[in-house]
Amino acid sequence: MATIKEIAKKAGVSYSSVSRALNQQSGVRPEVRKKVLEIARELNYHPHSSAKALVQNRIGVLGVIISRTSEFAFQNPYFSHMLLGLSSVANDMGYHLMLVINQQQSYASLYHSHLVDGIVVLANRIDDPYLPELAKDGVPAVVVPGFPDSWEFDLPSANSENYQDVYRAITYLLNLGHRDIAFILGGMNSIYSLVRLEAYKAAFRDKGLEYKDKYLKESDFSKTDAFRLMGELLDLPDPPSAVISINDATTPGVLHQINSRGLRIPEDISVVAIGCSDLVDLTDPPLTTIKVPVIQVGRAAARVLIELIETGDCRERHVVIPSAFVVRESTGVWPSR
């Protein structure tokens, strides 16, 4: 592997200039920094992470907090995809991840105890009691997803197009003739549920139509609960003609309930799934999907956090990654012909 000495020799500058350029320190002319970084890439130079941390007085660790139980975290593809995105950028930048699940004490204490250089909180819950302290103490931190503008504290965030995704999907179903559209959400302390519910309502409102509360169901984000709630919806005297499932964990329960009753998709009921897994490629028929770019969101969160750690600021505080609305065979015109 190349050394700083070799880079210095090829660049025609001093050892100390190369060190400052590689460690993003001041005292290096822009053209020299650019040349050094280009040569480092050319020579495939990778600094030893512990040595880099020692020079910069950093630990070289990013804390990742999942404010959910272990069972919930490891059964939901969302978190594995998120960790894949976070780790890919962290590893490239010489950082390791420390995973903390269901933390029941101050998040900021991890930073103040010098266990981590910064924190990514996979937040979700608007009533999380430990988030305000991060902003108050100036801890380098990024939340996923972002919080509403009305929230008391402003923390950097990375997110997908949660509002636009659902608005687009509901509008699509309304244009197909559906009016009785069910939505299996999570709890109303979930940012995802709150934002997506607002989009659901807005899509109806902008079409001059009224939605019906009886088609809105709060789940605990599990397959079992989604199965139960889908059963309640199908037992209504006027069951929905379409349903949206909020994530990869709830969708199997929705499909299981529909299939157990011998209903046809989309002839009897249309289905739209929100998620990041490949489940949609394995169903029959293939599901119309809001494909959430969770890996890319994880990468963005890591980049923002590392920039905060290394420069004290970030050029873009709230990163939003576009999603994809993929129409497949699980949605159709209503009433079906």
From TrEMBL:
Origin superkingdom: Bacteria
Record InterPro entries: HTH_LacI, LacI/GalR-like_sensor, Lambda_DNA-bd_dom_sf, Peripla_BP_I
All residue ranges annotated as the HTH lacI-type domain in the record: 2-56
GO molecular function: DNA-binding transcription factor activity; transcription cis-regulatory region binding
Pfam families: LacI (PF00356), Peripla_BP_3 (PF13377)
Keywords linked to the UniProt accession: DNA-binding, Transcription, Transcription regulation
Protein name as it appears in the record: LacI family transcriptional regulator
